[in-house]
Design brief:
164 residues, alpha/beta, 7-stranded mixed barrel, 38% helix
Length: 164
Amino acid sequence: MEMARLYRGDARELRSGGQMKRLGCCGIFLLLLIAGCQTGDQDASFVLFDKKPILISEEVVDRGVVIGHILATETAKDNTTRVQIRIAADQRHRMTDQVVFVAAAGRLTLSDMKKVGNPQGSGAIYLGFRSGKELFWFKTRTLFSRSAAVRAQREALRLSARFP
């Protein structure tokens, strides 16, 4: 009888030790998951609009293919809007200094000013247009200037100054 009590006591100790190991493993997994989420936001870039765009979908597309997602949208008092995006790792080569974005059909769509450009890293700032028509008029206004893409970058930086 005494032997049976000892056996049950050992089983309880083993069971509580196993629970502690599982709890510890779950805690470590949770910490790794949180750390992974925090480092992922460092891959984000920003698209700035002079007025609030109509975005229904969270997708960022290029020629009908989803290349990323919208992480957050922030609107200033004057309706200047900053959209935080993350582009998929296999599509980051598309992000150059020649890229702008258009809010078309409720989705954020990538548009190239020129086909070849200098690669941009995470945290880059891009200019956004609320329609293809706005992009057309921007290109028309900058037709005789040195580079429409340089003007787009300057405009995006000017708009980003409106956010803290």
